[in-house]
């Protein structure tokens, strides 16, 4: 009944796929079929009679998890594939907390804070301790607190930060921060993994429940896991040891977020009886691309040596194009996409433009628009940081969860209801002394405004409207959970109408073009909600959790449309494209300016270059600009040191101008050919 053909695998892949019990490590280079082994192995386990719901496969992004599910469905059919638990660490953690967070004294449902909310709490803490945010930077404090969570310890126990003067402040603020979160019945992103580990440590019964459920656990991109994730996994697998991990130490690129490559390098030591499989054949790229990638990564000192080869032939040489400035670079890439598309009969979706940091996408977007080339930017986070988007999402959150104090506080005066900061403080105080939630306090005030000084009739009428509205939509969204025919996006649109948010945007934004864009952004959430409901049949609560977990999910919809993909090197991990442009190959971009002075950071930058090069199947172009506009001034740039590490015999070096004249020559040739053809046709 299953459509599983192991003959398509090479002997090592087959060995890994058919391994059933006990720890398994697949340590192999890029494009060698690691992810493919995971998906085939899931199908194989199902074929061997293992229940699909007892299989857990963890990947790095929701998108990768969805893709895996599709690949498994190709072999097992969608019904069985649906039962396999395919997810990211964070959504798995969120699911565990949804069921069991009460074991730690939280209420259900809980809220997930975003970075803005976290920052606000750190600022409260600074006020409380009379610290100056100019000296004690809230962003850095948060990053230390986060690092500590990922190491499952306190800030003061972080060895690498012991001498950092900020660490002692972080230690002090850590307690305040944790208490504040609990008071808000909210968790941050790291808590989604940290709190389940606390539950597992304190409640053996709950741990056993999950350990029993997940009999076979697999993890893709294992080189990017951190200490906390290792602990988490260990709680799940320590009874049966059925853990299969795949990864490539050369692609470990999240060290800056606490990932420890030791997890993969020490796996054999940590899990006794590990079977290790190495894969050496690369199925993705041609050999010249691999030679370049291998040569670059060979400059890193600490690594496991790997020999990658491909049966796909040498292929085309790489190209390095030096452009005069950023505009020329962007236009060159756009023109080349058109040319490749015609010459090799490719689709726009076969192309990717990869860069080091998100803002680099802007010039390329402009050029692609000029050429009318369809494109999608992946993982741009700014969307969710826009005020109107945050406001509307907060409304939806407040409807879905009356305990979500952060969201309710955010919208209580949007559109203005006459509740300024002072009044807001008084209401919080009123809630606090009565030991009520903020929402309950609003309910009481709507009924009897005299209980807090300064609330007149006008304000109290508006408060009544607000709490009625929240109650009403809370009920309607809850009812929708039982009735899949209710369109969540329609309900969302009703929320917009009832709150007059669109009017509010149009009346506060003077510039009509910007106003239009802000309204479009709000609309975008509704269409995303509609798409989500159609695709996964989920509830509002689940949609909100998903966008809190993986903001890039908002782009899922557009990703399916044809178009050139633009993304950072970090988000390109695991993906592949026939034609790749690695742009901005300059010092201070790659390697990034912050990583240039520390050998470890520099190695991580080199691994990023390796990840970028190995995304390409057939065509790879690297570009740099000699000058770049920054802060309104043209700035001289220097080509990346990694370019010099690419063997000269694998790469052609051109200037964008030369390439232009080549293109002109080609155009002339085409014209000649066409007229010859015409002449022939007319003669016969
Ligand atoms: P990365 O390190 O970038 O995550 P990976 O090791 O996970 O790469 P995959 O993405 O699984 O590699 O595979 C790379 C490409 O090679 C895919 O297109 C896959 O379908 C193909 N491939 C893998 N194994 C085989 C095989 N035995 N025969 C044909 N194609 C294969
Ligand atoms: Mg992979």
From TrEMBL:
Gene3D superfamilies on file: 1.10.10.160, P-loop containing nucleotide triphosphate hydrolases, PCRA, domain 4
Catalytic activity: Couples ATP hydrolysis with the unwinding of duplex DNA by translocating in the 3'-5' direction; ATP + H2O = ADP + phosphate + H(+)
Keywords (A to Z) from UniProt: ATP-binding, DNA-binding, Helicase, Hydrolase, Isomerase, Nucleotide-binding
Top enzyme category: isomerase
Listed GO MF terms: 3'-5' DNA helicase activity; ATP binding; ATP hydrolysis activity; DNA binding
Keyword flag Nucleotide-binding: yes
GO CC terms, sorted: cytosol
EC code(s) of this entry: 5.6.2.4
Gene Ontology process terms (BP): recombinational repair
Family from the record: Belongs to the helicase family. UvrD subfamily.
Protein name: DNA 3'-5' helicase
Biological source species: Bradymonas sediminis
Source species taxonomy: Bacteria, Deltaproteobacteria, Bradymonadales, Bradymonadaceae, Bradymonas
